[in-house]
Amino acid sequence: MRLKNVLTSCAFHKDVTFMPKPRKIPTPQNLSNVALHYLERYAASEASLRRVLTNRIRRAAMQHPDFAADEGRQQELRSAIETIIALHKRTGILNDTAFAEMRVHSLRRQGRSRRVIEQKLMTKGVARDTIKAALAGHDDDADPREIERQAALTLARRRKWGPFRKKPVDVEARRKDFAALARAGFSADIVRAVLDYDFEDE
User: Fold this and answer.
1) Which domains does the chain have, with CATH numbers?
2) Tell me: the pLDDT tens digits for 91-107?
3) Which of 15, 66, 130, 171 has its CA 20 to 30 A from that of 24?
4) Is the pTM of this model over 0.70?
């Protein structure tokens, strides 16, 4: 009987638009708690944590006109964000060098090209010099072309492209695989080397 009443009530109010509950205006303590929760769940760069915390201020300003007009209060929270970031950098939880090294290792294992790795880390706000150092440390002065070839082979194996297709590769399949590997950031000569890969050569 109770379920019937609930269904009837929902049907009666089907045209009612339910608005989400407005976000609370953040405080320095709230931002600190958000940072801890975020860092517990994700490996983060300094820029990505700053973006998460700054978005809290931006969203609150969109829903609270008085807060949006209070630049002093917003500046206080932005200063609190920098204090939070500095604290986590001192403790070592927030470390762009370690973050870059970890992501390079993970992305190389997935068969990602140097170009894609650089793009992904740059979108996280990691400095270009830090990215280059992480790549150099991981690749360990090996032949750059061979590193890229092995990465492309790894990706082709995972995606079943080129010589890893179950069915014989025809002209159309080769064209699609060539385009896919090129979009993944590999140069034309690397792509051709992968598509012409001969298992007996290994």
Assistant:
1) 28-94 (no CATH), 95-141 (1.10.10), 155-202 (no CATH)
2) 999 999 999 999 999 99
3) 15
4) yes
